[in-house]
Amino acid sequence: MIRFECVSKSYGGSVVIDNLTVTIRQNQTTALIGPSGSGKSTLLELIIGLEPPDKGAILIDAEPLTSRSAFRLRRRMGYVIQDGGLFPHLNARQNIDLMAKEVGWPLKRRRERVDELCALTRFPPSALDRFPMELSGGQRQRVSLMRALMLDPDILLLDEPLGALDPMIRAELQGELKSIFRDLTKTVVLVTHDLGEAAFFGDAIVLLHEGRIVQQGQFRDLVERPGEPFVARFVHAQLSRLAAMNDQALVAQARQG
Ligand code: ADP
Ligand code: MG
Q1: Bridge partner list, 204
Q2: In testing the pocket of ligand 1, which one of 7, 18, 36, 42 has its CB within 8 Å of the most ligand atoms?
């Protein structure tokens, strides 16, 4: 569905994506994980054609992504930008509605689609006239997701969609998001820096480091068969963090009980 062939991208002389080849399979969730600065967001920007690669080819359903095809191909993609990217001066409905209005959907169709999406994401319709500032973090994420889904794209790109949420809300939204992905059968690329989240969502996990893919496969492969020392270090650091979080949860439980 999405293929990168020897793709490179540099900014100001520093290589951000380094001769990268990968295939992202259709109707699966691919979790893209890696430390901060490893090129995850840049990879999504390349897929959606916001930035052209310096070298190599990007294919969407075997069709090369070029400056000519980018506009049309982009219509097939929904994109949740890191930190949500909602327009602060537009209310929730206007944010969700923006693209559909742009492409000329009549009001009735737009209203029906927004109703559908509110039901899907369990967003209260009575809050549609609120501005992003007036919504909770979890609600803002739902609005970002609805905006990305408005035109019913076959590809959904999510850049750390749960990154800014507190742990309770995050766990709740993780579960909901996973059931939404299951119902929709879309090609999903979800960026995260959290291995637990990657394992939870990803049919496949792609681990990025300094613009290169250091390993791809299942969670088990990364844990049991790290392909290079970096993978083992990354997995170890993440698992220690998970263990620490688990300990905290147990301590909290013990205090309550
Ligand atoms: P990640 O999402 O994994 O944290 P990014 O893709 O955002 O990483 O960034 C990778 C590297 O590329 C960083 O060092 C970042 O500073 C640099 N970078 C990303 N976008 C730009 C840009 N538009 N201009 C200059 N440097 C950029
Ligand atoms: Mg990023």
Answers
A1: 30
A2: 42
How high is the pLDDT of residue 17? 97
pTM (2 decimals)? 0.91
Q: How many CA atoms lie within 13 A of 219 on its CB side?
A: 13
Ligand nearest to the CA of 37: 1
Q: What are phi and psi of 178, to 5 degrees?
A: -65, -40
Rounded CA separation 164/141 (Å): 9
Q: Tell whether the torsion through CA atoms of 152, 157, 159 and 165 is positive or negative.
A: positive
CA angle 207, 210, 216 (to 5 degrees): 20
Residue 198 CB-density burial (10 A; 0-12 exposed, 13-18 middle, 19+ buried): buried
CATH class, 1-76+185-257 region: alpha beta
The domain limits of the chain are 1-76+185-257
- How much distance in Å is there from the Cα of 40 to the middle of ligand 2? 5
Report the amino acid identity of residue 58. Answer: I
Residue 63: closest CA among 51, 76, 54, 50: 76
What is the reported pLDDT for 254? 66
